[in-house]
Amino acid sequence: MPVEVVAALQPTAGGRYADGTVGGGGHAAAILKASAPSGWLSGCDRDGVALEAAGARLAEFAGRFELRRGNFSELAEWIEAESCDGVLLDLGVSSPQLDHAERGFSFQQDGPLDMRMDRAQPLTAARLVNEAAEAELAGIFRELGEEREARRLARAIVEERRLRRFETTRQLAMLVEKTVRRSGSRLHPATRMFQALRMAVNDELGSLQRGLAAALTILKPGGRLAVITFHSLEDRAVKEFGRHHARDYTVTGQLDVPELRRPVRPQMKWVQRKAIPPGADEVAANPRARSARLRVLEKI
Ligand SMILES: C[S@@+](CC[C@H](N)C(=O)[O-])C[C@H]1O[C@@H](n2cnc3c(N)ncnc32)[C@H](O)[C@@H]1O
To answer: What is the pLDDT of residue 71?
Structure first.
Protein backbone atom coordinates (compact mmCIF):
# COMPACT_ATOMS: atom_id res chain seq x y z
CA MET A 1 0.00 0.00 0.00
CA PRO A 2 2.76 2.50 -0.90
CA VAL A 3 0.33 5.23 -2.02
CA GLU A 4 -1.64 5.04 1.22
CA VAL A 5 1.55 4.87 3.33
CA VAL A 6 3.00 7.99 1.68
CA ALA A 7 -0.32 9.79 2.17
CA ALA A 8 -0.28 8.75 5.85
CA LEU A 9 3.34 9.59 6.68
CA GLN A 10 3.57 12.67 4.41
CA PRO A 11 7.37 12.35 3.99
CA THR A 12 9.26 15.60 3.42
CA ALA A 13 12.84 16.51 2.51
CA GLY A 14 15.01 16.45 5.62
CA GLY A 15 12.58 14.11 7.44
CA ARG A 16 13.74 10.96 9.26
CA TYR A 17 11.81 7.73 8.85
CA ALA A 18 12.03 4.20 10.20
CA ASP A 19 10.73 1.16 8.32
CA GLY A 20 10.69 -1.73 10.79
CA THR A 21 9.71 -4.29 8.12
CA VAL A 22 11.73 -3.18 5.13
CA GLY A 23 11.25 -6.53 3.28
CA GLY A 24 12.04 -6.06 -0.41
CA GLY A 25 12.22 -2.28 0.06
CA GLY A 26 9.04 -1.32 -1.85
CA HIS A 27 7.56 0.96 0.82
CA ALA A 28 11.00 2.23 1.82
CA ALA A 29 11.62 3.29 -1.81
CA ALA A 30 8.29 5.16 -1.87
CA ILE A 31 9.21 7.00 1.38
CA LEU A 32 12.71 7.87 0.13
CA LYS A 33 11.32 9.11 -3.19
CA ALA A 34 8.70 11.26 -1.46
CA SER A 35 11.31 12.73 0.93
CA ALA A 36 13.92 13.54 -1.77
CA PRO A 37 16.47 14.98 -1.85
CA SER A 38 17.46 14.72 1.82
CA GLY A 39 15.03 12.44 3.71
CA TRP A 40 16.70 9.64 5.72
CA LEU A 41 15.40 6.11 6.29
CA SER A 42 16.49 3.48 8.83
CA GLY A 43 15.27 0.10 7.60
CA CYS A 44 15.13 -3.10 9.61
CA ASP A 45 14.08 -6.70 8.98
CA ARG A 46 14.55 -10.01 10.80
CA ASP A 47 15.23 -11.73 7.53
CA GLY A 48 18.76 -11.42 6.08
CA VAL A 49 17.56 -12.46 2.61
CA ALA A 50 15.01 -9.63 2.62
CA LEU A 51 17.71 -7.12 3.59
CA GLU A 52 19.83 -8.13 0.60
CA ALA A 53 16.84 -7.55 -1.69
CA ALA A 54 16.15 -4.19 0.01
CA GLY A 55 19.79 -3.13 -0.42
CA ALA A 56 19.57 -3.77 -4.17
CA ARG A 57 16.18 -2.10 -4.52
CA LEU A 58 17.27 1.02 -2.63
CA ALA A 59 20.67 1.42 -4.36
CA GLU A 60 19.45 4.52 -6.21
CA PHE A 61 19.00 6.23 -2.80
CA ALA A 62 22.56 5.45 -1.62
CA GLY A 63 23.69 7.75 1.20
CA ARG A 64 20.14 8.33 2.42
CA PHE A 65 19.42 5.06 4.22
CA GLU A 66 20.83 2.41 6.53
CA LEU A 67 19.71 -1.21 6.87
CA ARG A 68 19.98 -3.40 9.94
CA ARG A 69 19.07 -6.99 10.63
CA GLY A 70 16.93 -7.27 13.74
CA ASN A 71 13.52 -7.31 15.31
CA PHE A 72 11.52 -4.09 15.12
CA SER A 73 10.79 -4.57 18.81
CA GLU A 74 14.37 -3.28 19.32
CA LEU A 75 14.01 -0.12 17.19
CA ALA A 76 14.46 2.16 20.22
CA GLU A 77 17.82 0.51 21.01
CA TRP A 78 19.45 1.88 17.86
CA ILE A 79 17.32 4.86 16.88
CA GLU A 80 17.40 7.94 19.09
CA ALA A 81 14.29 8.79 21.10
CA GLU A 82 12.01 11.44 19.54
CA SER A 83 14.09 11.57 16.33
CA CYS A 84 11.65 10.20 13.71
CA ASP A 85 8.98 11.94 11.66
CA GLY A 86 7.41 8.64 10.63
CA VAL A 87 7.53 4.94 11.44
CA LEU A 88 6.14 2.13 9.28
CA LEU A 89 5.37 -1.44 10.34
CA ASP A 90 4.05 -3.60 7.46
CA LEU A 91 3.34 -6.78 9.40
CA GLY A 92 3.43 -10.46 8.55
CA VAL A 93 5.32 -12.41 5.92
CA SER A 94 6.47 -11.23 2.52
CA SER A 95 5.68 -12.78 -0.85
CA PRO A 96 9.28 -14.02 -1.29
CA GLN A 97 9.04 -15.76 2.10
CA LEU A 98 5.74 -17.42 1.13
CA ASP A 99 6.84 -18.31 -2.39
CA HIS A 100 10.12 -20.01 -1.49
CA ALA A 101 9.17 -23.54 -0.49
CA GLU A 102 12.39 -24.04 1.50
CA ARG A 103 11.33 -21.31 3.98
CA GLY A 104 8.50 -23.63 5.06
CA PHE A 105 5.73 -21.01 5.38
CA SER A 106 3.37 -22.45 2.80
CA PHE A 107 1.22 -25.56 2.70
CA GLN A 108 0.63 -25.01 -1.02
CA GLN A 109 4.16 -26.19 -1.77
CA ASP A 110 6.17 -28.85 0.00
CA GLY A 111 9.09 -27.67 2.08
CA PRO A 112 10.77 -28.22 5.45
CA LEU A 113 8.59 -27.27 8.42
CA ASP A 114 10.58 -24.14 9.24
CA MET A 115 8.65 -20.80 9.23
CA ARG A 116 11.43 -18.73 10.82
CA MET A 117 11.69 -15.16 9.58
CA ASP A 118 15.08 -14.99 11.30
CA ARG A 119 16.89 -18.17 10.31
CA ALA A 120 19.39 -17.77 13.14
CA GLN A 121 16.76 -18.39 15.83
CA PRO A 122 16.64 -21.94 17.22
CA LEU A 123 12.84 -22.42 17.35
CA THR A 124 11.36 -23.84 14.12
CA ALA A 125 7.82 -24.99 13.33
CA ALA A 126 9.11 -28.59 13.22
CA ARG A 127 10.40 -28.30 16.77
CA LEU A 128 7.09 -26.91 17.98
CA VAL A 129 4.98 -29.52 16.18
CA ASN A 130 7.17 -32.45 17.25
CA GLU A 131 7.95 -31.41 20.82
CA ALA A 132 5.23 -29.16 22.28
CA ALA A 133 2.67 -30.71 24.62
CA GLU A 134 -0.81 -31.37 23.21
CA ALA A 135 -2.38 -28.63 25.38
CA GLU A 136 0.22 -26.10 24.25
CA LEU A 137 -0.43 -26.89 20.57
CA ALA A 138 -4.19 -26.64 21.08
CA GLY A 139 -3.72 -23.25 22.80
CA ILE A 140 -1.59 -21.96 19.90
CA PHE A 141 -4.12 -23.08 17.27
CA ARG A 142 -7.04 -21.61 19.22
CA GLU A 143 -5.48 -18.30 20.28
CA LEU A 144 -3.29 -17.46 17.29
CA GLY A 145 -5.33 -19.17 14.54
CA GLU A 146 -8.83 -18.75 16.02
CA GLU A 147 -9.13 -22.41 14.97
CA ARG A 148 -12.37 -24.10 16.12
CA GLU A 149 -10.92 -27.60 15.76
CA ALA A 150 -7.82 -26.75 17.82
CA ARG A 151 -8.07 -29.66 20.28
CA ARG A 152 -8.85 -32.24 17.65
CA LEU A 153 -5.92 -31.09 15.50
CA ALA A 154 -3.51 -31.08 18.45
CA ARG A 155 -4.59 -34.62 19.40
CA ALA A 156 -4.16 -35.85 15.80
CA ILE A 157 -0.63 -34.37 15.68
CA VAL A 158 0.40 -36.00 18.94
CA GLU A 159 -0.93 -39.40 17.77
CA GLU A 160 0.75 -39.14 14.38
CA ARG A 161 4.14 -38.03 15.74
CA ARG A 162 4.37 -41.18 17.86
CA LEU A 163 4.71 -43.00 14.53
CA ARG A 164 6.93 -40.52 12.68
CA ARG A 165 8.30 -37.01 13.11
CA PHE A 166 6.75 -34.17 11.15
CA GLU A 167 9.38 -32.90 8.72
CA THR A 168 7.50 -31.14 5.92
CA THR A 169 4.69 -28.65 5.35
CA ARG A 170 2.84 -31.08 3.06
CA GLN A 171 2.91 -33.81 5.69
CA LEU A 172 1.25 -31.48 8.20
CA ALA A 173 -1.26 -30.08 5.69
CA MET A 174 -2.29 -33.63 4.74
CA LEU A 175 -2.92 -34.49 8.38
CA VAL A 176 -5.20 -31.45 8.66
CA GLU A 177 -7.06 -32.42 5.48
CA LYS A 178 -7.61 -35.90 6.93
CA THR A 179 -8.66 -34.66 10.38
CA VAL A 180 -11.10 -31.82 9.72
CA ARG A 181 -13.74 -31.35 7.09
CA ARG A 182 -14.93 -27.90 6.27
CA SER A 183 -17.93 -27.61 4.07
CA GLY A 184 -18.60 -24.30 2.40
CA SER A 185 -15.33 -22.59 3.42
CA ARG A 186 -13.12 -20.99 0.81
CA LEU A 187 -10.10 -21.35 3.09
CA HIS A 188 -7.88 -24.43 2.89
CA PRO A 189 -8.43 -26.35 6.16
CA ALA A 190 -4.76 -25.84 7.13
CA THR A 191 -4.79 -22.02 6.70
CA ARG A 192 -5.54 -21.12 10.32
CA MET A 193 -3.17 -23.69 11.78
CA PHE A 194 -0.30 -22.54 9.59
CA GLN A 195 -0.97 -18.91 10.56
CA ALA A 196 -0.97 -19.89 14.23
CA LEU A 197 2.29 -21.84 13.98
CA ARG A 198 4.00 -19.03 12.10
CA MET A 199 2.89 -16.48 14.69
CA ALA A 200 4.10 -18.69 17.54
CA VAL A 201 7.46 -19.50 15.93
CA ASN A 202 8.16 -15.79 15.33
CA ASP A 203 6.45 -14.49 18.51
CA GLU A 204 4.61 -12.07 16.25
CA LEU A 205 2.15 -10.61 18.76
CA GLY A 206 4.86 -10.16 21.41
CA SER A 207 7.09 -8.40 18.86
CA LEU A 208 4.18 -6.23 17.79
CA GLN A 209 3.43 -5.07 21.37
CA ARG A 210 7.08 -4.18 21.94
CA GLY A 211 7.46 -2.70 18.43
CA LEU A 212 4.50 -0.34 18.93
CA ALA A 213 5.98 0.86 22.23
CA ALA A 214 9.39 1.34 20.54
CA ALA A 215 7.75 3.32 17.72
CA LEU A 216 6.14 5.66 20.26
CA THR A 217 9.57 6.22 21.86
CA ILE A 218 11.41 7.08 18.62
CA LEU A 219 8.70 9.32 17.15
CA LYS A 220 8.94 13.09 17.51
CA PRO A 221 5.82 14.90 18.69
CA GLY A 222 3.78 15.34 15.48
CA GLY A 223 5.44 12.24 13.96
CA ARG A 224 3.21 9.51 12.55
CA LEU A 225 3.00 5.76 12.97
CA ALA A 226 1.55 3.70 10.09
CA VAL A 227 0.82 0.01 10.69
CA ILE A 228 -0.39 -2.43 8.05
CA THR A 229 -2.06 -5.52 9.53
CA PHE A 230 -3.19 -8.67 7.76
CA HIS A 231 -5.57 -10.32 10.21
CA SER A 232 -7.88 -9.53 13.08
CA LEU A 233 -5.45 -10.42 15.91
CA GLU A 234 -2.86 -7.93 14.67
CA ASP A 235 -5.48 -5.30 13.91
CA ARG A 236 -6.99 -5.69 17.38
CA ALA A 237 -3.56 -5.23 19.01
CA VAL A 238 -2.95 -2.00 17.04
CA LYS A 239 -6.45 -0.70 17.79
CA GLU A 240 -6.01 -1.44 21.50
CA PHE A 241 -2.58 0.27 21.53
CA GLY A 242 -4.08 3.35 19.84
CA ARG A 243 -7.09 3.43 22.14
CA HIS A 244 -4.88 3.16 25.22
CA HIS A 245 -2.50 5.96 24.20
CA ALA A 246 -5.23 8.27 22.83
CA ARG A 247 -7.17 8.16 26.12
CA ASP A 248 -7.11 11.19 28.39
CA TYR A 249 -7.48 9.10 31.54
CA THR A 250 -6.08 5.95 33.15
CA VAL A 251 -7.92 3.40 35.21
CA THR A 252 -6.81 1.83 38.45
CA GLY A 253 -7.33 -1.92 38.55
CA GLN A 254 -8.79 -4.21 35.89
CA LEU A 255 -12.17 -2.54 35.38
CA ASP A 256 -12.84 0.83 33.81
CA VAL A 257 -15.07 2.39 36.48
CA PRO A 258 -15.75 6.05 35.50
CA GLU A 259 -15.57 7.24 39.14
CA LEU A 260 -12.03 5.78 39.48
CA ARG A 261 -10.59 7.34 36.33
CA ARG A 262 -7.58 9.63 36.69
CA PRO A 263 -6.87 12.29 34.05
CA VAL A 264 -3.64 11.94 32.01
CA ARG A 265 -2.27 13.68 28.95
CA PRO A 266 -2.91 11.49 25.86
CA GLN A 267 0.29 10.51 24.02
CA MET A 268 -1.20 9.81 20.59
CA LYS A 269 -4.22 10.61 18.44
CA TRP A 270 -5.84 8.76 15.55
CA VAL A 271 -5.21 10.38 12.18
CA GLN A 272 -8.28 8.55 10.91
CA ARG A 273 -10.67 6.49 13.00
CA LYS A 274 -11.26 3.79 10.41
CA ALA A 275 -8.73 1.31 9.04
CA ILE A 276 -7.76 2.05 5.43
CA PRO A 277 -8.12 -0.86 2.94
CA PRO A 278 -5.93 -1.19 -0.19
CA GLY A 279 -7.19 0.30 -3.45
CA ALA A 280 -8.96 -1.93 -6.00
CA ASP A 281 -5.99 -1.67 -8.40
CA GLU A 282 -3.58 -3.03 -5.80
CA VAL A 283 -5.89 -5.94 -4.90
CA ALA A 284 -6.30 -6.76 -8.62
CA ALA A 285 -2.50 -6.77 -9.08
CA ASN A 286 -1.79 -8.62 -5.83
CA PRO A 287 -4.70 -10.64 -4.39
CA ARG A 288 -2.67 -11.27 -1.17
CA ALA A 289 -3.12 -7.57 -0.37
CA ARG A 290 -6.90 -7.95 -0.03
CA SER A 291 -6.87 -8.41 3.74
CA ALA A 292 -4.37 -5.59 4.42
CA ARG A 293 -5.58 -2.73 6.64
CA LEU A 294 -3.64 0.46 7.38
CA ARG A 295 -4.02 2.28 10.71
CA VAL A 296 -2.40 5.65 11.35
CA LEU A 297 -1.65 7.38 14.66
CA GLU A 298 0.14 10.65 15.42
CA LYS A 299 2.28 11.31 18.48
CA ILE A 300 1.14 14.34 20.42
C1 LIG B 1 4.84 -7.73 4.43
S2 LIG B 1 6.57 -7.85 4.42
C3 LIG B 1 7.10 -6.19 4.20
C4 LIG B 1 7.21 -5.78 2.78
C5 LIG B 1 7.84 -4.40 2.62
N6 LIG B 1 7.04 -3.36 3.23
C7 LIG B 1 8.07 -4.09 1.15
O8 LIG B 1 7.62 -3.03 0.69
O9 LIG B 1 8.72 -4.89 0.46
C10 LIG B 1 6.95 -8.11 6.07
C11 LIG B 1 8.43 -8.16 6.40
O12 LIG B 1 8.55 -7.89 7.78
C13 LIG B 1 9.51 -8.72 8.34
N14 LIG B 1 9.16 -8.83 9.76
C15 LIG B 1 8.05 -9.36 10.30
N16 LIG B 1 8.06 -9.23 11.63
C17 LIG B 1 9.21 -8.58 11.94
C18 LIG B 1 9.79 -8.13 13.16
N19 LIG B 1 9.20 -8.35 14.34
N20 LIG B 1 10.97 -7.47 13.10
C21 LIG B 1 11.57 -7.22 11.91
N22 LIG B 1 11.09 -7.65 10.74
C23 LIG B 1 9.91 -8.31 10.74
C24 LIG B 1 9.43 -10.01 7.56
O25 LIG B 1 10.66 -10.71 7.60
C26 LIG B 1 9.11 -9.50 6.15
O27 LIG B 1 10.26 -9.31 5.39
So the answer is: 98
* Residues in contact with 237: Cβ distance below 8 Å, sequence separation at least 6, in sequence order: 205, 208, 209, 212
What pLDDT score does 187 carry? 82
Q: Is 43 in the pocket of ligand 1 (CB under 6 A)?
A: no
- Report whether residue 26 contacts ligand 1, using a CB cutoff of 6 Å: yes
* Residues 118 and 46 sit within 8 Å (Cβ to Cβ): yes
pTM > 0.90: yes or no: yes
Residue with CA at minimum distance from ligand 1 atom 4: 23
Number of other CB atoms surrounding residue 114 within 10 Å: 18
How far, in whole angstroms, is CA 268 from its chain's centroid?
21
Which ligand 1 atom sits closest to the C-alpha of 50? 27
Report which protein residue has its CA nearest ligand 1's atom 27: 23
Q: Is 42 in the pocket of ligand 1 (CB under 6 A)?
A: no
